[in-house]
Amino acid sequence: MRLSDSYDADNYMGSDDPELAEVMERSRQDYECQSHSYQSASGSTLDSRATSSTLNSQSRSQGFGSDHPSYARMMELQENINKLETEIGDIDREIGTLQATKTFCQENLQKAKAELDTLKYGKGKGKANGNGAPSGINYDVDSFVWMGGLKNKMKEVFGIPSFRLCQRGVCNANMDGRDIVCVMPTGGGKSLTYQLPALMTSGVTLVISPLLSLISDQIMHLREAGVEAVKLTGATSKSEAEDINSRLMSLANGRDIPGKKEIKLCYVTPEKIAKSSKFVSLLQKLASSKNLSRIVIDEAHCVSQLGHDFRPDYQKLRVLRQLFPKVPIMALSATCPPRVLQDLLTILGLRPVVSGTDANGDGTVYFSAPLYRKNLHYSIQLKHHEGSRVMEDMTAWILKHHPNDSGIVYCLSKKDTEKVAQELHERGKIKTGVYHADRSDSEKEMLHTQWRKGTVKVVCATIAFGLGIDKGDVRFVLHHSISKSLDGFYQESGRAGRDGNDSDCVLFYRPQDAATLSSMTYSEKDGQAKLHGMLSFAQDLKQCRKLQFANYFTHSSQLSLNSWSTEESGALDRCGHCDNCTRPQDEIELRDVTFAVWQILKIVDHIIREGGDVTATQLAGLVRGTGGGGFNATSGNRGKRKTTKGKVQLDLDTVCGGKVELKKEEIEYLLVELLLQKYLGERPLATAYAVNMYMTLGPLATRFTRINRADVEAGRGHRIQVTFRRAAKKAGKSKEKEKAPKAASSRKGGASTKGSKSQSPSQADDEDDIDEDYEPQPLFDSDIDDEAVYGEDEGLPDRPKMEYSEFEFEDEEDEDHMDWSASYRAKPSTSQQVRRRPPRKRQKTGTLGKITDVIEISD
């Protein structure tokens, strides 16, 4: 019997004292609560009569009976409370049981993982560290259980007998299902590191690549090797796309299609991920069925704005980790400095990197290979300021060194690609093709095929061409103009010699090109700093090219010097085969140009004080006493132009003690070096049609502008020395003049006739139609029709055919033929014809390209 059944709260022990009755009632209620809790914990339920009695007593003590509206609600709530407390007690017991089960499973999981690691990695586990604790996983060993299958498949399918660089480690990490960042030089074999594991695992590997030509090239190679690889791009036909989607859907559903092989690799562009929700949905179904084995992002540096080739569509790939959290992601790049790497990890949602030779269990495994490639021979060729002479030199170089080899000539603009291809064919009967963004996809595909077959020997292209192209026998890469950055130049030149054989990487350089690139890069993030790195490389006549690359990437990109070490040589050893290593020392000379620098900076200071603006070209002429001897000046408040003062004459004797006694070419190189060393600066000025770069004083200019001539001549203050080439002997004038008329008559579309008006400096060929767009416009812009491929059926001559213009030009010392203060035109010319600069007579022949190259500054 329960206590509540044995008494009446109103007459308990016959007490008439209301206070005592209240105390007793509270005591009884406390007892009832304790009893309820005990019974709930033991799995019992409360007797409804106790609840009813309690509520009855409370109701009467509060002055209302069982017929009061609150009474029913109280009874309902109390019943609900009892049920919930009972349910909570049941859940607590279940939680206790599940927790015990979880602990048991966790213990067994750790044991299973340890045993699996032993079986998988074997000797791949690192040795114990200094504290006796085991270190991480070393993926760069042969002891993994799948290694035998990898090697057999590699030889059987790709015909490759052994791994090179860090390929083995990357393949092992791939087979282990790890997130990976792999940085390998162009031609290092990055593609194998995901293509080979794709053949060894179930499901499809998704490869995201920026350019159609790269995708086409990969598909071509894989199909030739018998690998089922497909692409879904804008160039894929509707019927083919439907077939591919159907096969992928069948794979996701676990069904085989009779007569169809399983797709192992599917190539897409970033736009496919960003704009096709249907395709993303298909990928999610593949991932759910565990048939999306990995996601590969090629040219992954494009994801970062800090990289040299940022592409906005790549940033949309940040959704991959969110959509596919359990699918391994692999990022590949040829150049990925630390800042770009960190940005890449953040955008793609990857964990911090761990070493591929000492990896923990959950980090992103990082691999890198030495960036130095000993089979590439770098050199800088002096580029003549006359376009015809440039092509004459380039043609002669190709015919002398690689008359029957495949090569690439990179040009700055679309117009230049057309012009260079035509000139190479006309001058040397070289079979050339053209690639730029205006070519159709079919033309690109055709050029790609003919270039690989050898029908086309030399492709003249804008910078996107060749990105990832797997053509091993490219024996030379020429740059008609400098690249925007040394990063870009390294990657572009690295498309030579991918088969490991000796190849040449040659830059045709002149300081005039610096202004063109400067106007293009001034608004880009770190654009000027990157360009200056490229200019420093081009200007240097003494330091080994390998060491220049190592210093640049180590300091500007903070890469380890070990990236430039090989088994044969250390990072600080000279390569011994670049132009600066092989150049005889008697071909260069060191001269003191401190007084000339003082003169130049004094002139710039005077021009600025007078409200004038001068480009580098104008300055090069003014300091030598040419160019009309004056400059245009304006006046206005706080830099706002209001009034044109007109042309102001420059009195060199008063300003700086006379004209600068250096040759034109020497001054041009000196101006670039002063810009690099912060003695000079540039100021952009945008107009409706162009961006002009004007010279100004740099932060170090006061070292010279604050002192007078006497101090400079007395040797007080900073001293500047310049390394010049020793001037070569000039060829006889009479001999050149005999050749000129004959050569001119043999060229199509020769120079303009006499009487044509001279083209203004701002209309120089190299400044028109600049193809600044580094976006991945469908890559393979090439032309295989009669207008784009030159000399398909013609043989090559045994000796270069040298040609000269039929016109003589004015003294190069007196007037510039081309304005190298080039400005980037916002509206490129729409003319499809190659414009040629009208000639001007001259009295003697100059010898550009034989004088100064590089400057060294010592304080």
Secondary structure tally, helices: 28
- How many β strands by DSSP? 22
The largest β sheet comes out as:
8 strands, parallel
Percentage beta strand: 5-15%
- First-last Cα distance: 108 Å
Proportion of helical residues: 25-40%
Q: Which structural class do you get from the secondary structure elements?
A: alpha/beta
Chain-averaged pLDDT: 76
CATH classification, class level of the domain at 144-366: Alpha Beta
Described by the principal axes of the CA atoms, the overall outline is globular
Annotated CATH topology of the domain at 144-366 = Rossmann fold
**Rg, nearest Å:** 39 Å
CATH architecture of the domain at 144-366: 3-Layer(aba) Sandwich
Lateral strand order in the biggest sheet: 3-4-2-5-6-1-8-7
Description:
By secondary structure, the chain is an alpha/beta fold. Among the domains are: 223 residues, 3-Layer(aba) Sandwich (Rossmann fold); 209 residues, Rossmann fold (3-Layer(aba) Sandwich); 128 residues, Arc Repressor Mutant, subunit A (Orthogonal Bundle). The protein has 28 helices and 22 strands. Strands 3-4-2-5-6-1-8-7 form an 8-stranded parallel beta sheet, sandwiched between helices. It has a 6-stranded parallel beta sheet with strand order 9-14-13-10-12-11, with helices on both faces. Strands 15-20-22 form a 3-stranded antiparallel beta sheet, with helices on one face. Helix 8 packs parallel to helix 10, helix 14 crosses helix 15 and helix 23 packs across helix 25. The chain is globular. It starts with 17 loop residues before the first helix and ends with a strand.
